[in-house]
């Protein structure tokens, strides 16, 4: 019992500024890496759907390569491997680069499946309206593909946030690295890593629930764009002001009788 009583004696107030800074760095890694992974993943998905087989081959090799290499190995290659080849990256750049190339491989498969899932009749309808390839993709294919890709993309975002903890191996000054430093100073590993785990849970669980709520709204047909939501509200208000055509027709008949 005396050993257990001594577990919770870390002076957390002394480490609060460092923990807040580590939290900020963790969120920075997550945001920058996720944006980069989405952009690169979308580019790879478009290459996989290209009519030119060399482009499809390059994208396929990239996707299969990074899907089958552990993230930790990619982190070591980006930070230690490139440095031995004369390319020295700072910790933040190497960490973000590792997360981007790893998660872009998975996101490219999600995006490719979502784009392929849009019915070909939608493209034909756009062509019938005189839209070009860019217009068809931007106004017809992409909005529908986003709805289909949202569940998988949300899962990748939460997983990426948790994977930032692997950057402790290159001393990235994120939450896990700060936990290791506090453990070295206090020798209270159980308490420290329980708190670090609780912080990750406090980040990931609300995020996953917010993303789940977003998925439900999308499935219910709620527009993602604020501009589209305003247009929808304006259209509903306009319909509410105008009398239905059937009611007008009934009034005309009643007057004729």
Automatic annotation (TrEMBL):
Q: What are the protein's GO molecular function terms?
A: transmembrane transporter activity
> Per the record, GO CC terms?
ATP-binding cassette (ABC) transporter complex
Q: Which domain of life is it from?
A: Bacteria
The answer to whether keyword Membrane applies is yes
State the Gene3D superfamilies in the record: MetI-like
Outline the extent of the ABC transmembrane type-1 domain: 23-211
Extract one GO BP annotation from the record: amino acid transport
Q: Where in the cell is it found?
A: Cell membrane
How does the UniProt record describe the way this protein sits in the membrane?
Answer: Multi-pass membrane protein
Q: Which InterPro entries match?
A: AA_ABC_transptr_permease_3TM (IPR010065), ArtM/GltK/GlnP/TcyL/YhdX-like (IPR043429), MetI-like (IPR000515), MetI-like_sf (IPR035906)
Major site of localization recorded for this protein: membrane
Q: Write the record's keywords in alphabetical order, separated by commas.
A: Cell membrane, Membrane, Transmembrane, Transmembrane helix, Transport
Spell out where the chain crosses the membrane. Answer: 27-47, 59-81, 87-106, 193-214
Q: Which family does it belong to?
A: Belongs to the binding-protein-dependent transport system permease family.
What this protein is called in its record is ABC transporter permease
Q: Give the organism's phylogenetic lineage.
A: Bacteria, Bacillati, Actinomycetota, Actinomycetes, Kitasatosporales
């Amino acid at each position: 019992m005396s050993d257990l009583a001594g577990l919770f004696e870390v002076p957390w107030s002394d480490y609060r500024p460092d923990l807040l800074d580590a939290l900020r760095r963790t969120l920075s890694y997550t945001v920058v890496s996720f944006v980069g992974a989405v952009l690169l993943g979308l580019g790879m998905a478009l290459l996989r759907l290209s009519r030119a087989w060399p482009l499809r081959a390059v994208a396929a090799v990239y996707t299969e390569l990074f899907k089958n290499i552990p993230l930790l190995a990619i982190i070591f290659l980006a930070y230690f491997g490139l440095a031995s080849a004369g390319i020295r990256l700072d910790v933040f750049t190497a960490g973000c680069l590792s997360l981007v190339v790893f998660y872009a491989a998975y996101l490219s498969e999600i995006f490719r499946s979502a784009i392929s899932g849009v019915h070909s009749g939608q493209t034909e309808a756009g062509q019938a309206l005189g839209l070009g390839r860019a217009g068809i993709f931007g106004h017809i294919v992409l909005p529908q593909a986003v709805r289909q890709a949202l569940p998988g993309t949300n899962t990748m975002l939460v997983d990426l946030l948790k994977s930032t903890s692997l950057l402790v191996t290159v001393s990235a000054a994120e939450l896990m690295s700060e936990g290791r430093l506090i453990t070295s100073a206090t020798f209270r590993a159980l308490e420290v890593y329980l708190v670090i785990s609780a912080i990750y849970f406090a980040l990931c669980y609300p995020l996953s629930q917010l993303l789940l709520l977003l998925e439900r709204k999308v499935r219910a047909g709620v527009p993602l764009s604020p501009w589209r939501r305003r247009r929808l509200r304006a259209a509903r208000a306009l319909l509410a002001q105008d009398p239905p055509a059937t009611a007008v027709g009934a009034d005309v008949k009643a007057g004729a009788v």
